[in-house]
Design a protein that fits this description.
Shape: globular
Strand content: 15-25%
Number of helices: 14
Strand order of the largest sheet: 5-4-3-6-9
Bound molecules: zinc ion
CATH architecture of the largest domain: 2-Layer Sandwich
Number of domains: 3
CATH class of the largest domain: Alpha Beta
Structural class: alpha/beta
Order of helices and strands: HHHEEEEEHEEEHEHEEEHHHHEHHEHH
Helix content: 40-55%
CATH superfamily of the largest domain: ATPase, nucleotide binding domain
Oligomer: single chain
CATH topology of the largest domain: Nucleotidyltransferase, domain 5
Distance between the termini: 36 Å
Number of strands: 14
Length: 391
C-alpha cells in the first residue's frame, strides 16, 4: 500500500491533483487517501487550494505541494568568498548575500561564519529559524556522500575528513547535505534552465577548474566521487606546477589563478576586471585559456555527447572571451554530429548557481518518500507519547 510519502510524490510529479484522482489512480480507499492527505497537510507538505469557479456545484479542491512550508539554507563556498541563501523548497532564494570568508581559514572558523550568516539572513528576512527543514553546503573539493566530509581538496587545506555536518548541526538540528561545488552548480543550472536536456556538462573556471555532469536529472559522481576533475588533466609538455603537485595540468595553464599570475595580479576576479576594462593582453590570454581548456572539453564532449556545455565561475564573467576560446576548440576538435545540437553557453544563474543547486538537492531529499514518511512517523510517535504521558 502506498505510504504518505509516496502519495506526496504523485502530487509533486503532477500525476494527481485532487483526492478523487488519487483514489482513482492508486486504488486506495477513500478513507486511506483522506488519512494520507490530511497528515501531509497537517505536517505542511501539502496544501489544498480552491480551484476557482467550476461549471456548477462545489469547485474541486486542488492539491499542491507547499513549497513555502519549509525553508532551506544553502551555502556555496569558494576559495575566497561564500554565497549564502535562504530558499523555499522550489530553490527560489528568499534572501541571499555574499560574504568574504577564505576557505583556507579551516572548517571551524568558516562554518561558524556561515552559520552566523544564515541566522542573520533569517532574521533580516523575518523568517522563523524553526521553519528550516535542511541545510546544504557545496565546497571546492571532492566529498564523501556517506560522511559529508571532504575527501581531498587542493584549495581547502585543513578540511580533509573533518566533520562538517556535525559542526553545522550544533546550530541547525536538521538534515545537512554536502556536495562538490561544480556538481551542485551543474544541478542548479540544469534545474533552472535546461531541464528539457537529458545531459549537461558544466565547467567551473574560477581559481581552478572543475566540472559537474548531470545525466537524466541526476548528478554523476563516479566511483570515487572524482568525476569532473578535468582541471588536472595534464597537457603535453607544459611544466607549470599545479596545486595538486603535478605539472602541466590544464588548471595550472588555463585556470583563473594561472591567468592572474601571468598578468601580475592576484585572483581570478582581478583578471575578470582587467578583461571587462578592455585590457588587450588580458583579453588575448583569456581567449587562449579558453582554447586550451576547450581541447580537454572536446574530449569530454566526444565521450558524453551532452546537450548543453555550460561555462560557470569567475571566468564566465569575462563576457564572451573565455567562452569563444572554448567554442573554437570544441567545434574544431569534435565530430560535427557530436556538436550539431550542442549548446555552449554561460550559466543563467551567475553566482547563484551553487546555492540553487544545493537547495535543489536538499529539497529533493526533504521531499523524498523515505524522509517524509520518517518525519510523519516521528510526529505521530511524539503525539502518541505526549497523549500517553498526559494526566
Ligand atoms: Zn593538477
Amino acid at each position: 500500500m502506498l505510504s504518505a510519502g509516496q502519495v506526496l510524490q504523485l502530487v509533486r510529479r503532477g500525476s494527481c491533483r485532487t483526492r478523487k484522482e488519487l483514489i482513482e489512480l492508486t486504488g486506495l480507499s477513500r478513507s486511506t487517501v483522506t488519512d494520507r492527505v490530511d497528515r501531509l497537510i497537517e505536517a505542511g507538505y501539502l496544501r489544498e487550494v480552491n480551484a476557482g469557479v467550476s461549471g456548477g456545484g462545489r469547485p474541486p479542491m486542488m492539491l499542491d505541494v507547499d513549497m513555502g512550508g519549509r525553508l532551506v539554507l544553502a551555502a556555496d563556498l569558494g576559495a575566497a568568498h561564500a554565497t549564502v541563501a535562504v530558499t523555499d523548497l522550489a530553490a527560489r532564494p528568499l534572501a541571499q548575500e555574499d560574504i568574504e570568508v577564505p576557505v583556507d581559514r579551516g572548517p571551524e572558523r568558516v562554518l561558524a561564519e556561515v552559520c552566523r550568516a544564515f541566522l542573520r539572513l533569517l532574521e533580516s528576512a523575518g523568517l522563523d529559524p524553526a521553519r528550516v527543514g535542511g541545510v546544504g553546503l557545496d565546497v571546492p573539493g571532492s566529498v564523501n556522500q556517506d560522511t559529508g566530509r571532504v575527501i581531498r581538496s587542493f584549495v581547502m587545506p585543513g578540511w580533509d575528513d573533518r566533520p562538517i555536518r556535525e559542526v553545522v548541526g550544533e546550530t541547525f538540528n536538521v538534515p545537512i547535505l554536502v556536495e562538490n561545488d561544480a556538481k551542485a552548480m551543474a544541478l542548479g543550472e540544469w534545474w533552472s534552465a535546461w531541464r528539457d536536456s537529458p545531459s549537461l556538462l558544466l565547467v567551473k573556471v574560477s581559481t581552478g577548474i572543475g566540472a559537474g555532469i548531470v545525466l537524466d536529472g541526476r548528478i554523476y559522481r563516479g566511483v570515487e566521487e572524482a568525476a569532473g576533475n578535468i582541471g588536472h588533466v595534464r597537457l603535453g609538455d607544459d611544466d607549470r606546477v599545479c596545486t595538486c603537485g603535478s605539472r602541466g595540468c590544464v588548471a595550472a595553464v588555463a585556470g583563473g589563478h594561472a591567468l592572474a599570475v601571468r598578468l601580475g595580479r592576484t585572483t581570478s576576479r582581478d583578471v575578470v576586471r582587467l578583461v571587462q576594462a578592455g585590457d588587450p593582453a588580458a583579453i588575448a590570454l583569456t581567449q587562449e585559456a579558453g582554447r586550451t581548456l576547450g581541447v580537454v572539453l572536446a574530449a569530454a564532449v566526444s565521450l558524453l555527447n551532452p546537450g548543453v556545455l555550460v561555462l560557470a565561475g569567475d571566468m564566465a564573467e569575462t563576457g564572451e572571451h573565455y567562452l569563444t576560446g572554448i567554442r573554437e576548440s570544441v567545434y574544431r576538435r569534435s565530430l560535427p554530429y557530436a556538436t550539431r545540437n550542442l549548446e555552449i553557453a554561460t550559466g543563467t544563474l551567475g553566482r547563484s548557481a551553487g546555492v540553487v543547486g544545493t537547495a535543489v538537492m536538499v529539497a529533493e531529499h526533504l521531499l523524498s518518500p523515505a524522509t517524509v514518511d520518517a518525519a510523519l512517523n516521528t510526529a505521530l510517535n511524539t503525539a502518541l507519547n505526549t497523549g500517553l504521558n498526559a494526566p
